[in-house]
Amino acid sequence: MRALFWIATGLLAWAQAGYGLALAALRRGLEPPPAPPPAPERPRVSLIVAAYREEAVIEAKVRNALALDWPRERLEVVVAVDGGAEPGADATAARARAAGADVVLELPRSGKVRTQDAAVRAASGELLAFSDANARWEPAALAALAAAFADPGVGYACGQVRFVNEAGTNQEGLYWRYEMWLRESESSLHSVTAGNGAIYAVRPEAYIEVDAVMGHDLSFPFNMVKRGWRAMYAPEARATEKMVPTIEGEWRRKRRMMSHAWPIVLAGGMLDPRGYPPAYALMILSHRVLRYGAPLLHLVVLASSLGLVRRGRVYRAAVAAQVAVLAAAAAGGRVHARPLLLARYYVLTTASLAAGLFDHLRHGTPPGWEAPEGTR
Fold first, then answer.
1. Do 276 and 284 meet the contact criterion of CB atoms below 8 Å apart?
2. What ranges make up the beta strands (E) of the chain?
3. How many CB atoms lie within 10 A of CB 238?
4. Burial code of 77-100, b = ≥16 C-beta within 10 A, e = fewer?
5. b/e burial code for range 175-209 (CB count within 10 A of at least 16 → b)
6. What whole-number percentage of the chain has pLDDT above 70?
7. What is the CA radius of gyration of the chain?
8. What is the pTM of this model?
9. How far apart are CA 345 and CA 33, in angstroms?
């Protein structure tokens, strides 16, 4: 029982803090990166937006794309409307056309990934860029994103997302800033372990059609590495979007996300080390596998410390600390003090990892998606 306690505690500490400290130490030992190669002629880019019932935001998204600092003749805006061919479809397709999208696809309802696959087949760009309908790119974002592909070994690059509404109870903004720092560190050492749907790009020859429930955010980076590409983070490629305003809404969003993430972990090849360089395998274990396994590790720590509570102060302190965090999380639902909200955010988002696994194992994972509350 002592071994279980210390192993689980050590793995939790490594996943939540030690890994970041190790990345920081490794980055300090790196030589300065070489000067970037001369920028090639700007490629023709297909900017793809998969949209489901996005009539409220799609016009603004298309206008935002057309306002990017990129030659208009070298930019193709593709809006693929999931469910646009179904009876009762909303006005997303019509509004995308009115706003100036170059290609608008009205497709049967099949989920985001299959909608993106259809858009890629219709696209003509030398580089494929992707964004969500509610994300707004800064004018220079596409140029910064495309610059990553001056290195012929890069197959995937994602940008930086910032939240524009942090006034609610959700504490995702604090976590997300840490996550972006981890990705920048991973990118400087080898490749990122995950991306984001708001702003990323892929070489057409590197694009892969994954299972319909396995989103690009998590499935693309490690698959790129397995195929000999690098997956990079381009922090100068910036986008903004609204986050879910409440912690309870974030719990529901992450639960849904994890129901899509667990198939990638369990059956999508993430756990298969073949094709991983050793350093990247450690990154996947630390940042993904152990992070997603945090609910189980917490339960092991709690159960073992309860069993050892009469054996020493360390175990009594461990029980007291865990009870205090749970009590603070419960109080955070009524008293919106920052420490209590942080505890509530941590407990609920950690629990969402297990809830997503439960949903996937019991009900399977549907390919479709709905926009999270408060993000449009």
1. yes
2. 45-51, 75-82, 103-107, 127-131, 136-137, 154-163, 200-202, 230-241
3. 20
4. bbbbbbbbeeeebbbbbbbbbebe
5. ebeebbebbbbbbeebbbbbbbbbbbbbbeebbee
6. 96
7. 22
8. 0.92
9. 37
Give the confidence band of 38 by pLDDT, cuts at 50, 70, 90.
low
Longest Cα–Cα distance in the chain: 73
Cα-Cα end-to-end distance for the chain: 49
Residue tagged 């070298």 (tokens)? 74
Nearest to 100 by CA among 70, 139, 74, 72: 72
What Å distances lie between residue 336 and 250, 322, 328, 343, 346, CA to CA?
Answer: 16, 20, 11, 11, 14
Q: How do strand 136-137 and strand 154-163 relate by DSSP bridges?
A: unpaired
**What are the CA-CA distances from residue 178 to residues 19, 114, 168, 349 (Å)?**
12, 31, 19, 15
**What's the CA gap between 99 and 248, in Å, rounded?**
35
Distance CA 102, CA 93 (A): 12
Residue type, 253: R
- Rounded Cα–Cα distance for residues 130 and 107 (Å): 18
Q: How far apart are CA 361 and CA 354, in angstroms?
A: 11
Q: Nearest-CA neighbor of 169 among 352, 353, 339, 324?
A: 339
Which two structure tokens, joined as six digits, stand for 309? Answer: 């509570």
Q: Are 121 and 105 in contact (CB under 8 A)?
A: no
- Report the alpha-carbon distance of residue 232 to residue 194 in Å, rounded: 10
Backbone angles phi, psi at 296, to 5 degrees: -65, -40
Is it the case that residue 52 has pLDDT exceeding 90?
yes
Angle between helices 172-189 and 338-363 (to 10 degrees): 70
| Distance in angstroms (rounded) separating the CA atoms of residues 56 and 79 | 14
Record the tokens describing residue 10, joined without a space: 């050590």
296-315 pLDDT, tens digit each: 999 999 999 999 998 999 99
Helices (H) and strands (E) in the chain, counts: 14, 8
